[in-house]
Recover the amino acids of this structure.
């Protein structure tokens, strides 16, 4: 089955006819003879779409539509589309139903071709919204999405009409005067030109002179970069049932099958702009959630989740090009003492400063990632051993010679230890092995006195239990990390704060 549809009508013959037509199109059909029965059936069967008669024994079709809208608003997920069926001679009832929230209004006798095309369009839109809503809810649960803003700016509306006559032009001008949205009228020849303002809604209006030419633009608008996210509405001439059905199957979001009617256009326009903006917000939240999943929130650098597959792709490219690549694993020296003596805000400032210095002093092609804690990974394509060693030495020197400003105004120097591993073509080492080699070299740099660079190919293979990080045996000055006066531990400063005796001079 392609979907479950609830048919609500007090006349059994009408229900039977609709059931036969919908069943032949492979829809599952459930039925109700009144509004209250329909609401009860919704709780039991959870339909994907509702088709309701305009008049029911206990309420009108628009009252049922409003009740369904309230029900959908109280639970997660997209709203259930509602189509209201009216007699052909009740235009005021059509507008009332659209104002009550109906997604479309069909006139009796129902045109089967247009009805089935409309069902396909509404169900596609609902499925797409459901998928985006699910991802948005997941992101919101993880704290990765924001609540929508209450502010609603005017919409950008583009009406494409081919040689509109005086009557049609007068109706468009009347619509522009009453609308709060920004509306522009263009002819088909200029419709596909680049425009910096991407419209929220594009209205394709057939006129008595167009001969169906406007409809041919619909696939191009749907695939064009500037309009593929826009809502598309097609206004067909009366009795052009085939063109109307084709427009929905080609990607139109909404349809007016009886020509231009200003009041109805105003109602449909408002609904389509709101839906388009909801889709934009859900997509933006999803993009932001994906970005947050691979980005370190403090430094703005990529995290380990992103770095690992990137390094695998880098290794594959290096194998094909027969060019080496380098991995640098950098670790801040005595970072724990920064947090202990200056506070975690100072530690965050040190991490952010290091991230910025790495970004400013490495190539755009180099990947910089926060590997964890105070460790940072740099992946450098097309880099041999000499270039990697010189780059790592330059980064160490950069940190050692430039103090870091803390939030309270004090400045300290924090040094860097770096382990470097080189990946070469036809090597048995995998990217994970290479990261492990760089990590062993980093341990060696720590054990060798810090503020230094160690190449992985100079480190002797040791049992894992022998490779450990060591803390300074006792708090004492470290002349390697105190290139400026006053010397560590020799001055309490005018503010009474003692300079820590473990390698972070206050300037």
């Amino acid at each position: 089955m392609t979907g479950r549809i609830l048919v609500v009508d007090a006349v059994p013959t009408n229900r039977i006819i609709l059931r036969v037509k919908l069943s032949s199109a492979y829809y599952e059909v459930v039925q109700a003879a009144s509004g209250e029965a329909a609401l009860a059936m919704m709780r039991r069967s959870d339909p994907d779409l509702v088709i309701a008669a305009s008049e029911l024994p206990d309420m009108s079709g628009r009252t049922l539509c409003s009740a369904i809208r309230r029900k959908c608003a109280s639970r997660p997920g997209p709203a259930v589309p509602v189509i209201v069926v009216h007699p052909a001679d009740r235009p005021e009832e059509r507008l009332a139903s659209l104002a009550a929230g109906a997604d479309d209004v069909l006139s009796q006798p129902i045109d089967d071709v247009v009805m089935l095309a409309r069902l396909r369009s509404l169900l596609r839109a609902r499925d797409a919204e459901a998928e985006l809503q699910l991802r948005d809810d997941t992101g919101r649960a993880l704290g990765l999405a924001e609540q929508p803003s209450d502010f609603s700016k005017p919409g950008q509306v583009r009406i494409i009409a081919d040689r509109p006559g005086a009557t049609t032009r007068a109706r468009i001008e009347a619509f522009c005067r009453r609308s709060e949205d920004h509306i522009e009228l263009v002819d088909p020849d200029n419709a596909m030109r680049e425009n910096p303002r991407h419209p929220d809604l594009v209205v394709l209006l057939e006129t008595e002179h167009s001969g169906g030419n406007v409809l041919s633009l619909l696939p191009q608008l749907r695939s064009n970069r500037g309009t593929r996210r826009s809502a598309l509405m097609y206004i067909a001439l009366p009795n052009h049932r085939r063109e109307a059905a084709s427009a929905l199957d080609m990607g139109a979001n909404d349809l007016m099958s009886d020509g231009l009617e200003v009041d109805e256009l105003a109602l449909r326009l408002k609904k389509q702009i709101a839906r388009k903006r909801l889709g934009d917000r859900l997509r933006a939240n999803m993009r932001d959630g994906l970005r947050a999943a691979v980005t370190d929130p403090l430094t703005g650098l990529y995290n380990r989740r992103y770095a690992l597959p990137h390094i695998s792709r880098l290794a594959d490219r290096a194998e094909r090009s027969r060019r080496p690549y380098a991995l640098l694993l950098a670790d801040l020296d005595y970072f724990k003492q920064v947090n202990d003596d200056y506070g975690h805000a100072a530690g965050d400032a040190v991490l952010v400063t290091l991230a910025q210095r790495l970004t400013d002093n490495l190539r755009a092609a180099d990947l910089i990632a926060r590997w964890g804690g105070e460790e940072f990974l740099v992946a450098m394509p097309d880099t041999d051993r000499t270039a990697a060693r010189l780059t790592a030495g330059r980064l160490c020197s950069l940190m050692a010679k430039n103090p870091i400003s803390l939030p309270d105004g004090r400045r300290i120097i924090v040094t860097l230890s770096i382990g470097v591993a080189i990946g070469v073509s036809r090597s048995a080492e995998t990217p994970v092995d290479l990261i492990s080699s760089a990590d062993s070299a980093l341990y060696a740099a720590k054990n060798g006195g810090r503020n230094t660079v160690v190449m992985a190919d100079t480190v002797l293979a040791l049992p894992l239990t022998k490779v450990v990080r060591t803390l300074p045996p006792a708090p004492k000055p470290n002349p390697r990390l105190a290139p400026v006066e006053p010397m560590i531990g020799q001055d309490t400063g005018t503010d009474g704060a003692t300079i820590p005796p473990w390698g972070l001079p206050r300037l």
Observations:
- The first strand starts at residue 4 and ends at 8.
- DSSP finds 14 helices and 17 strands in the chain.
- Residues 475 and 502 are 6 Å apart (CA to CA).
- Confidence is low (pLDDT under 50) at residues 462-507.
